[in-house]
Amino acid sequence: MTEMIKMIADAPQEQQKAMITQRLNMIAAQPDEQRVNSVKGIMMGGFKLKAKKMEAFVINRTNAMMEMEAEPKQALIVARVKAGAQVPADINKKDMMAIVKCSMTWPAEKRNMFMESMGQVFNKLDMPKPDFQAMMEQMK
Amino acid sequence: MLDNLTKRYKATLIFGLSIVVISLGLGIWRMVNLNGLIDVVLGRILEIIPLLGLGFLKLGIGFAIIVIVKNISATGEKATESFAKAGLQPQKTKEPFYTKFFPISIISGILVELVATGVMIAWIITGAKIYNGDASVEMAIANEVLHILAVPIEGIGVALLIGGIAFGLATIISKLGLQVNLLPKRLKGLIKNPDELLDENTQYLVPKGLKITTIVGMIVIFLVFLPTAMVRAIITPAILRGTASVGMIYYNTFNNAIWEIWMFLGIVILLFAISYLLMEIIKLLRAQRSNLGKTLSELTGKPANPIEEELRIQKMIPSFAAGGLVWMISLFIIGIARFIFEYSGESTALYLEWLSGPSKAIGLAIVFTGIGLALLTIVYNLKLTAFMLPGSFTNFVNIIKGDPLNKPMPAPTTHPLKLAPFKLFIGILVGVEIALLGTFPLILFRIGTHLTGMTTAANMYKAFIGPWVSVGIGLIFFMIGMFFSTIVGFVKGRRAIISEGVQTCVYYTLEKKGN
């Protein structure tokens, strides 16, 4: 998976987004357990990239996910939350910070809907919700 | 242990290039120490060490190919495991001989080159003893025999390394070809007729001509050792003792004129085979996209998206491969002409030696340019395949689940050549340019210094130019290694996508069956 992430991250911008979208569509179609493993693989692979490339990759990934249909998008959000609990804490935190950074480029309405959606998933899975507000303050 | 070694293909490539660059430094040192013991020692080191560096570069390429083969094999195994859960009865196919042979050939090649290095060390010792006053016939014989054997032994190592690389590519073709044909058929069987998922006991056959060409190239190089070098090694003591017959002297003169170009002809035959093996891989990568697209079209009733046209540069590859081979055959004929003139005592022989010696690098440069174009096209096709595979599998899953198909993705780019890694190809061209600078300028320089009597300048240039050309060839091999390193990444990505994709397809098929 690391090599595939590196390959996508090294691709030109127009190709990168298209490849990420294709990959996310495939992951969204997978059964639950396999989907969580795939997202875990993407997070671990992304972490091995250099900091700037990792951030750009996560931003592209998040933007691609937000353009998907409601059902696969929700499936990926759930998988991301579950995978976050299964990877080392620093990987989860870095990935989440990049997601929050991406959301700060969106209109407020879209950002709030996304944060609320994620928050609901954390609550449903009975997992501690990250402090998105604090993360956004940290980035400003 | 082999697994740990092969993973270090990048480090091996860097190590090889370092040896070649260091030999350039030794060449410069020799240039300013033209007479004396340093000249004797460095002259002998520089016959072998640059070739050892090139050997490690080939080893790095070989290791990368072993990793590629492992990943392609794992892709097939994982997919077969998943299909077996859906009722596939996989048949055991007999693997071709070269699947097991090629890693052994590659490792043996570098070991033989290390033996040649040992012979070189012995040759240095004899040279130093002669320089220090040992005028015995036995020492002179030992010196000559070691000289005669060192490079041909190295040549066997080269044959094993390049032959191993060629058969490694043949192994990639046989495994990739099988998957390109079987995967769409199995997916169709899974979706249309899951109760009748039969395995097809098929092998993908590598074109016989390419296997034969590879074997011929290896034999041609082996013949430089046997009988040419071995026989010369036996005749030389007689010549030095003054007991050689006319026939022995005739044979020695003949071999002297042609053995080196004979070895390079064998190398170019191998590189010619490699060019065509790479073209076979390009064909398979296109076929993979085309076959998956046709299968989706058959299952959905919708027309398949046409695959991209071949790149124009792809059509140039056969010309470069053939051009390099024809060049080397011409030099071989010049070598025979040189022997005829030399035997007749004509000075034309000297000019033919000056012409043909440096010109070997031109033949190599032509064929390596073609190989560079082939690798560029392979990476381009791998990027297109990486782009289309996830979408194809998503649609296969949607068909099984009864969900609507995904909207077709736009083309990855409006400028196809943007997908080709030109930086790596330019690296090959730089290497070609460096090697070519050691050819025509050297020929002109040698003619010029012969006419003006500038022997010292000629000798300085001669000391430098061998390592210079080796740096050019070394850079070419290094960039080829980097190409294969890029390919490793894609093959690992392909393995993940196909394994997961088939696993998902089988999961939903079984779930549907259960309902």
Helix content of chain A: over 70%
Overall outline of chain B: elongated
- What would you call the shape of chain A? globular
From the structure provided, what is the oligomeric state, counting identical versus distinct chains? heterodimer
Low-pLDDT segments of chain B: none
State the low-pLDDT regions of chain A, or none.
none
- Series of secondary-structure elements of chain A, N-terminal to C-terminal: HHHHHHHH
Strand content of chain A: under 5%
**Count of individual beta strands of chain B:** 0
Q: Rg of chain A to the nearest angstrom?
A: 14 Å
Description:
The complex is a heterodimer of chains A (140) and B (515). Chain A contains 8 helices and no strands. Chain A is globular and about 35 Å long. In chain A, helix 2 (13-28) crosses helix 4 (51-66) and helix 3 (32-47) packs across helix 5 (70-84). Chain A has 140 residues and is mainly α. The model of chain A has no long low-confidence stretch (mean pLDDT 87). Chain A starts with a helix and ends with a helix. The longest helix of chain B has 60 residues, at 455-514. Chain B contains 12 helices and no strands. Chain B starts with a helix and ends with a helix. In chain B, helix 3 runs parallel beside helix 12 and helix 6 (208-241) runs antiparallel to helix 7 (246-300). Chain B is mostly helical and 515 residues long. Chain B has helices at 2-7, 9-31, 37-85, 97-131, 137-192, 208-241, 246-300, 317-344, 348-401, 422-436, 440-452, 455-514. At the A-B interface, helix 1, helix 2 and helix 3 of A face helix 9 and helix 12 of B.
Care to give the gist of this entry?
Chain A is mainly α. Chain A is 80% helix and 0% strand.
